[in-house]
Design brief:
The complex is a heterodimer. By secondary structure, chain A is mainly β. Chain A is built from no helices and 11 strands. Chain A has strands at 4-7, 10-14, 19-25, 32-38, 45-51, 56-59, 62-67, 72-77, 86-93, 103-104, 108-113. In chain A, strands 2, 4, 5, 9, 10 and 11 form a 6-stranded mixed sheet that branches. Chain A has a 5-stranded antiparallel sheet with strand order 1-3-8-7-6, with no helix packed on it. Chain A starts with a strand and ends with a strand. By secondary structure, chain B is an all-beta fold. Chain B starts with a strand and ends with a strand. Chain B has strands at 4-7, 10-13, 19-25, 31-37, 44-51, 54-57, 64-66, 76-78, 87-95, 102-105, 109-113. Chain B has no helices and 11 strands. The chains are: A mainly beta, B mainly beta. The A-B interface holds A 4, 31-32, 41-46, 49, 51, 89, 91, 93, 96-100, 102-107 and B 4, 31, 33, 40-45, 48, 50, 56, 58, 90, 92, 94, 96, 99-108.
Chain lengths: 114, 114
């Protein structure tokens, strides 16, 4: 069964600190992996998209890594800010065609404290 | 561009009532979809459309109907609301490319069924 598991479920860090969120997947065949940020009361917004041939991609202070062999991805947030408080969702696409078969993780809730 | 818009933002229904959640996009995307988001779970696909006049079922279609008369609009109908349909509903529009598809989500509709 195609699944995406994220850890930890929630995380609290101090402003300015770094953190890393984990994503393990058992989706096959694999096409690409996305990380989304979802602010409270808003829809998810794409941070990064990586195909199987990419092992790292950055978007400002966000850096995603992908190990297609071990089927693991991580999202590293550098120098966290209060505005980083959100849910971060890992999503895997098993097909390069229309994304109706996206497999969503449950998300990691990050809270950044001052 | 307004992107993906959804109305209403909040709605409370009594069991057995019907209603329509509205979704519109101004990006001229062919592909649109509806998801529901429940606590502790990943987003689940309800219905999707690959173009005007074409719709198909997703993972959890029971109790919902959709239609796609125009490229811009993709309404979701609850036929006879049940407490199990209490959830946050997201509409998404997909931009396609040779490498991967990218989804853009609306702000969501929070529905409570009493």
């Amino acid at each position: 069964k195609n699944q995406v598991e994220q850890s930890p479920q929630s995380l609290i860090i101090l402003e300015g600190k770094n953190c890393t969120l984990q994503c393990n997947y058992t989706v096959s065949p694999f096409s690409n992996l996305r990380w989304y940020k979802q602010d409270t009361g808003r829809g998810p917004v794409s941070l990064t998209i990586m195909t199987f041939s990419e092992n790292t991609k950055s978007n400002g202070r966000y850096t995603a890594t992908l190990d297609a062999d071990t089927k693991q991805s991580s999202l590293h947030i550098t120098a966290s800010q209060l505005s980083d408080s959100a849910s971060y969702i890992c999503v895997v696409s098993p097909s390069p065609e229309y994304g109706n078969k996206l497999v969503f993780g449950a998300g990691t809730i990050l809270r950044v404290k001052s | 561009n307004a992107g993906v818009t959804q109305t209403p933002k909040f709605q409370v229904l009594k069991t057995g009532q019907s209603m329509t959640l509205q979704c519109a996009q101004d990006m001229n995307h062919e592909y649109m979809s509806w998801y529901r988001q429940d606590p502790g779970m990943g987003l689940r696909l309800i219905h999707y459309s690959v173009g005007a006049g074409i719709t198909d079922q997703g993972e959890v279609p029971n109790g919902y109907n959709v239609s796609r008369s125009t490229t811009e609009d993709f309404p979701l109908r609850l036929l006879s609301a049940a407490p199990s349909q209490t959830s946050v509903y997201f509409c998404a529009s997909t931009r396609t490319s040779p490498s991967y598809n990218e989804q853009f989500f609306g702000p969501g509709t929070r529905l409570t069924v009493l």
